[in-house]
Amino acid sequence: MTKVSEKQVFSMPKCLNDVPTHFCPGCHHGIIHRLVAEAIDAFQLEDKAICVGSVGCSVFIYNYIDVDSVEAPHGRAPAVATGVKRARPDAFVFAYQGDGDLAAIGLSEIIHCANRGEKVSIIFVNNSVYGMTGGQMAPTTLVGQKTTTTPYGRSPQNEGYPLKMAELIGSLEGCAFSARVAVNNIKNIIKAKKAIKKAFLAQLKNKGFGFVEFLSACPTNWHLTPLEANKRVETEMMAYFPLGIYKDIVE
Amino acid sequence: MSSKKLLVKGNEAVAIGAIDGGVECYFAYPITPQSDIPEYLSRELVKLGGTFLQAESEIASINMVLGAAAAGKRAMTSSSGPGISLKQEGISYIAGSELPAVIVNMMRGGPGLGGIQPSQGDYFQATRGGGHGDYRTMVLAPSTCQECYDLTIEAFDLAFKYRNPVMILGDAILGQMKEPIVRWKERSIDPNEAIKWCLTGKKGRKQRIIKSLRLEEGSMEALNEKLMKKYKDMEQDIKWEEFMVEDAEVVAVAFGSIGRIVKSTARKLRSKGYKVGVFRPITLFPFPYKQLREVAKKGKRFITIENNTGQMVEDVRLALCGICETEFFANMPGKVSTPEDFIEPIENMFK
Amino acid sequence: MYQDVIIAGFGGQGVMFIGNLLAYAAMEQGFNVTYMPVYGVEMRGGTANCTVVISDEEVGSPIIFYPKTLIVMNQPSLDKFQPRLVPEGILVVNSSIVDESKVEKEKFNAILIPANHIADNLGESRMANMVALGAWLAAIDEVKLETVEEVVRNQFKSKGEEIVNKNISALRRGYEFAMEKAS
What we know:
By secondary structure, chain A is of the alpha/beta class. Chain A has helices at residues 29-42, 61-64, 77-87, 99-105, 107-115, 156-159, 165-170, 186-204, 219-222, 226-240; strands at 49-53, 68-71, 92-98, 121-126, 175-182, 209-215, 244-248. Chain A contains ten helices and seven strands. A seven-stranded mixed β-sheet of chain A has the order 2-1-3-4-6-5-7, sandwiched between helices. In chain B, the strands form three sheets. Chain B has a seven-stranded mixed β-sheet with strand order 3-2-4-5-7-6-13, sandwiched between helices. A five-stranded mixed β-sheet of chain B has the order 10-12-11-14-15, sandwiched between helices. A two-stranded antiparallel sheet of chain B has the order 1-8. The radius of gyration of chain B is 20 Å and the shape is globular. The mean pLDDT of chain B is 96. The interface between A and B is large, with 33 and 40 residues.
């Protein structure tokens, strides 16, 4: 009998808690949580990180990522993050926000936080719909997309157009890094991981504001199967929200 | 620290009190009639290594306070009526997250945009929580520039003692008038003041979560029970002033700048032979119910005077309930009160 | 001891400034004092006034409806505040630009002083306010001319000796003018 020597090549990130997920099957939040946790591990930030949670499906981030955390009112995470970072400049401060939170009710806070060049990192999850409240229109809902508050499809005449946040943030002077990524396949996950690290580096190197927008699937509120939802990210979302790096002055 | 007197505006006295009270982070949005506070702190706080940031909105500023408070720092914001309304969301979250913060409201006239004239129209908003959910902020109402200084220092201590927002409720008269103050407190910052609960990064200990979301069964109940007890405990820090109350037949109840103006009225009426005193609540929440009740038991008659259409008078009625009634005299928001305005209504009580 | 004054004029005439000086001087003399500014809606050219209350007791109201003394620097201020001055109150009037016939001389202790002209003769027309304050100081006992001069020296220290001296001579001219009138 030959002795097989095993080498572990894959494990849970150290700062990710081993708890059951509350996210729906096929939701991308879980993958994005994991990528954030991996980046925290990679830069050994577990003991100096302070996470700012927001309101929406991602509100429970502090149950998954094992770092000091504070919860912000809806849309206000960038302001709370500003307060934390100004109070503790040595801490690593990041916020995790959904599309309703960041691009609708909290649009003012995110723009001014980025424009001031706050040394914080923002993870923005865009799934083109309000998840937690039950599938209403988001500021990133695509034209024609049906939601519970756009039953005939989003109409530009009535609701205007979906906001392209990565481009908007990238255009601001205070922003050091802005990118749009997806986690619909392995190749994109690897790119996304790099983008998170870059956004974190913007803070760690004191360069300025770091921003990563994730295109994410919401099978439940899109009324699709997980596989169909994953496909929609590529076919419909990427067509309007192109992946790419919109600003990078980190190196 | 010299005992030399400084002639300063009430707004500046608040800002100096904040400095000596150890404020480390100040965030605000400009609004008349309190802009002297951010102007002073933008000059002086940064010299001491503190953080001054003019936020993009009232909403952002109160949430920056929330963040800095979660990080364990003495954090503060200031505004006036319309701005305080915008901050209410954040104040509710700060109360729900049990964080310390100092919020200054130099009231102006309303409703709506109103104007910058004097008013005490935000009494209800200040003493009943002001935002959504069941919470209270401790409310301190100075009536002199020295009190603006003293109570701002005390506000920080109380905010940390109870881990609850504390509001300084002033008004346009107090903010703009000048009076000598003595600085008696040397600025000192205790870096370990919040070490048992604040966010620092884990640094080897267990994760800390500061939040106001309470979904687990029984947890919202438990929080509210704890808050209720906290509000009860605050009663040990009730402050009030009695001015010539001992032999008075009629006691005027008034707070803030009206509280001091009524003192002049009382002196004038005493010179005409009317025995008038003034009861001035300094903490508006918790309200000095028991203290006022004790005065009522001595058989006095009462008149409540406010620069609004009748707000504190409801608390006065609660205090006097079952013993006697109070008259009410409303000096309308927007009107600058003088001692003469109150002579007739008080004199009438002797007829 | 109790004294109060309303100082009123156009914005830009420096009524707030002399109110401040007076409050400082009262504080230096150990009194309790309040200074309360009231601005018109207009910033410049509009009316402005301030109230200073001085007492050896705690000051109650910083706002006074019936003042014991009054300094009026322009016509609208006389029209507005003269009817509220207590009988036999001290009334300092800038007679350079105020219609003297409107001053109720028999009712009050009126001091008519051509403050603008006196200031012009000193070569600094903006110092009419200091001239008027000097005249007021001559009429009351509580705050001393010397204390106000001391405050002026401290306040204008950074602006140089010339400015200090000009302001002090304006104060003195006003004081002397009022003394001569009284004697």
